[in-house]
C-alpha cells in the first residue's frame, strides 16, 4: 500500500526547478487589496491585477482573461494586521480581513516545479493517472480550500485519452510521484510546471 495516502487536494506544492536546480524557498512579497474579499489558500494559483495579488480562477486557459484567469505564481502565506491591531502571519488569507497592509508570499519562479494531487475531472475526488501522462498538458480543478489546515483545494484533472496536447492548458506534467502510487501504474500525485506564466507573457496588463 502507498505511503502516505493522499486523501484530498492540497494545491500546488513547490519542490524543485525543471532546470535541475533545487527550489530554495524563495518568494516574492506582493500586496493584497484591502477590499479583496476572496480567501486565498496555501497552494492556490494567483495572478497580478491592478498591482495586487488575487486568486486565479485558472482551469484550462491561462492566456486569456488575464484579470481573472492567469498563472503568476503560487500563494504560500500572508502577513497582515487585523482589526485588533495584531500582526497575523498565516497559512491562508481569509478574505476581507480589513487590512491595508496585507502582504502575500508568492512563488513566482517561472521554472518552478510543483507537486499536485490528481482528481477526477469535474470534481475533487482523488484519482490517479499513469506514466503515459508525463509530457502531456493538463487542466486544474478549483476545489474549496480548508480553513482548518489553510491548504488549497486546487488539484489536477486526470488526463483523458486523446487529450493533453492543447497549448492553452495551464500546466505540463513532467513526472509522476511513485511514493504515493496506489498500484504499479496508478499515480495519485504528479509533478507539473506552468505553461504560460503571466510573468513571462509578452503582453502585459493594461495600465489603469
Can you put this structure into words, describing what you see?
With about 210 residues, the chain is mostly beta strands. The protein folds into two domains: about 25-110, no CATH class; about 110-200, no CATH class. Helices cover about 0% and strands about 30% of the residues. The chain has no helices and 13 strands. Strands 1, 8, 9, 10, 11, 12 and 13 form a seven-stranded mixed beta sheet that branches. Strands 2, 3, 4, 5, 6 and 7 form a six-stranded antiparallel beta sheet that branches. The radius of gyration is 17 Å and the shape is globular. The model has no long low-confidence stretch (mean pLDDT about 90).
What is the total tally of β strands? Answer: 13
State the shape. globular
Spans of at least 5 consecutive residues whose pLDDT stays below 50 are none
**How many structural domains?**
2
Q: How far from one another are the termini?
A: 54 Å
Instruction: Please state the structural category.
Output: mainly beta
Largest sheet: 7 strands, mixed
Number of helices: 0
Computed CA radius of gyration, to the nearest angstrom: 17 Å
Overall average residue pLDDT: 90
Order of helices and strands: EEEEEEEEEEEEE
Helix percentage: under 10%
Q: In percent, how much strand structure appears in the residues?
A: 25-35%
Please give a handful of descriptors for the protein shown:
208 residues, mainly beta, 2 domains, six-stranded antiparallel beta sheet, 32% strand, globular
Amino acid at each position: 500500500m502507498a505511503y502516505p495516502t493522499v486523501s484530498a487536494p492540497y494545491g500546488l506544492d513547490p519542490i524543485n526547478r525543471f532546470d535541475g536546480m533545487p527550489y530554495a524557498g524563495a518568494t516574492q512579497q506582493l500586496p493584497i487589496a484591502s477590499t479583496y474579499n476572496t480567501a486565498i489558500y496555501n497552494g492556490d494559483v494567483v495572478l497580478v491585477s491592478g498591482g495586487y495579488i488575487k486568486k486565479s480562477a485558472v482551469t484550462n486557459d491561462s492566456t486569456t482573461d488575464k484579470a481573472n484567469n492567469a498563472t503568476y505564481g503560487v500563494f504560500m502565506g500572508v502577513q497582515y494586521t487585523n482589526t485588533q491591531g495584531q500582526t497575523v502571519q498565516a497559512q491562508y488569507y481569509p478574505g476581507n480581513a480589513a487590512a491595508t497592509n496585507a502582504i502575500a508570499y508568492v512563488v513566482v519562479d517561472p521554472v518552478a516545479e510543483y507537486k499536485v494531487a490528481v482528481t477526477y475531472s469535474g470534481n475533487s475526488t482523488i484519482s490517479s493517472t499513469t506514466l503515459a501522462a508525463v509530457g502531456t498538458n493538463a487542466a486544474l480543478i478549483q476545489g474549496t480550500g480548508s480553513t482548518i489546515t489553510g491548504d488549497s483545494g486546487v488539484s489536477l484533472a486526470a488526463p483523458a485519452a486523446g487529450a493533453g496536447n492543447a497549448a492553452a492548458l495551464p500546466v505540463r506534467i513532467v513526472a509522476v510521484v511513485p511514493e504515493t502510487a496506489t498500484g504499479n501504474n496508478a499515480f495519485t500525485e504528479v509533478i507539473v510546471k506552468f505553461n504560460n506564466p503571466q510573468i513571462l507573457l509578452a503582453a502585459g496588463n493594461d495600465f489603469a
